[in-house]
Automatic annotation (TrEMBL):
Pfam families xrefs: PC-Esterase, PMR5N
Family per similarity comment: Belongs to the PC-esterase family. TBL subfamily.
Official protein name in the record: LOW QUALITY PROTEIN: protein ALTERED XYLOGLUCAN 4-like
Highest taxon in the source lineage: Eukaryota
Annotated Gene Ontology cellular component terms: Golgi membrane
One example GO MF annotation: xylan O-acetyltransferase activity
Domain Trichome birefringence-like C-terminal: 135-432
Biological source species: Phoenix dactylifera (Date palm)
Membrane topology listed for this record: Single-pass type II membrane protein
Compositionally biased intervals (Basic and acidic residues): 72-96
Region described as Disordered: 50-97
Cellular location(s): Golgi apparatus membrane
Residue spans crossing the bilayer: 21-40
Bias kind Polar residues: ranges: 50-68
Amino acid sequence: MGTIHHHHHHHQPSSFPTKKLITGALYALLPLALLRVYLFSIPLNQPELTNNTQTQETSSPSIPSSQAAEGVEQRHSPRSPRCDYSDGRWVPDSRGPRYNGTSCSTIKDGQNCMAHGRPDAGYLYWRWQPNQCQLPGFDPVSFLQLIQNEHLAFVGDSMARNQVESLLCLLSTATPPELVHRDGQENIFRRWVFHDYNATISVFWCPFLVKGIEKSAASGLNHNKLYLDSPDERWASELDQMDMVVFSVGHWFLHPAIYYENELVLGCHHCPESNHTEIGFFDVFRRAFKTTLKVASSRYWSSPASSEKLVVVTTFSPAHFEGEWDKFGACPKKEPYKEGEKEMEYMDAEMRKIEVEEVAAAAKEAAESGGRLRIEALDVTKQALLRPDGHPGPYMYPNPFADGIKGKVQNDCVHWCLPGPIDTWNEILMEMIRRWKEKSS
Ligand SMILES: *[C@@H]1O[C@H](CO)[C@@H](O)[C@H](O)[C@H]1NC(C)=O
Ligand SMILES: *[C@@H]1O[C@H](CO)[C@@H](O)[C@H](O)[C@H]1NC(C)=O
Ligand SMILES: *[C@@H]1O[C@H](CO)[C@@H](O)[C@H](O)[C@H]1NC(C)=O
Ligand SMILES: *[C@@H]1O[C@H](CO)[C@@H](O)[C@H](O)[C@H]1NC(C)=O
């Protein structure tokens, strides 16, 4: 699929209003136009149905880091419901990852940094230290017990996919999943079952959450179309079969787009050749979440099975392009940022804020209407921001420097290497599910 056009949206600050909103958009546009390339350009050579090679080996559950950890000890109990995992720092951890690029068979090629020859391994030896408490390490058996007889769905863009693939690798250290369903170009809809637990995990490609048409050669569009008052039915129509759903979107909202509401054009983003009004994407992002969470609430309520449900929103994950996306050294860091070393960019902060606010509003409403639905933010923006070292960079492709350093080399400074920092998101997700189950039982 080398023909996917790159749409180089050159920065043209002079021809645009200098409002912060627009600057933020342009700042991020160039590299993000490539997300589609990242997602679709790498052929998956084999179906992902291969057995996991590391099956029985880790039969003893891993030691929770609350027991292994040094330093900051439990001023609050480690599973205190009040623990805020969103703020903290990365600290060295000699234990290293629970899986690797050869032990886990479900890692997408573009994120298998080890197998692709990434030479440094230091980025694997960090753990997230929240300010007020300890984050227990991932325990695959406990996680599987938590989702026993249930269905956990991930809905969103390639970041949702990145997170689900991390989770599958973490869980396969206990028992291998079976891929029971796949559909769509590059298997963008997939479902796995962990038979020992009758636990189902799935991923749905819905990069806007709301109804949309993606720009592509196939659709003949050079911009996206978003219908902000309608959910993407690819997830919404299956909601009644989900017990827990994790929404994870963001970067696709930065692309050129035309927005519709009530079948009327609301405005557009980065559409100089049309006559629509530029409205940026922040308000659009907010409306998309309003629609999504409203639909999630209302359809859950009307579902006949009146069991408790959990809705999680993984917050925006910042990119770390320091140079040009197609040059050597686009995201060259080998260590996390230290505290205070990196301020959150305006755009990253704003995207996160919108998600956190919309989750809070929807959670309040859900609680007021009876409390069978729990809505929470998995607030990873800060911990992600602090990990410029965790991206595949040039190792999105195998051995990119086999013939020396060439003039052009594509870099992925958006997604996360597996194993890598994104594994921590699933440690937090485990605690969220645990707390929710404890509350509701
Ligand atoms: C996968 O599992 C099946 C059945 O458990 C077995 O017959 C087959 O040899 C395994 N394949 C590999 C590559 O391990
Ligand atoms: C990957 O993990 C397996 C199983 O734990 C181990 O045998 C192997 O040596 C590891 N490979 C690397 C490159 O660390
Ligand atoms: C197995 O899990 C599904 C949800 O994924 C659930 O509907 C079904 O009832 C479960 N089966 C049993 C026997 O609990
Ligand atoms: C934009 O408006 C101008 C003037 O009304 C018109 O000539 C042109 O065709 C319009 N362009 C589009 C893409 O609608």
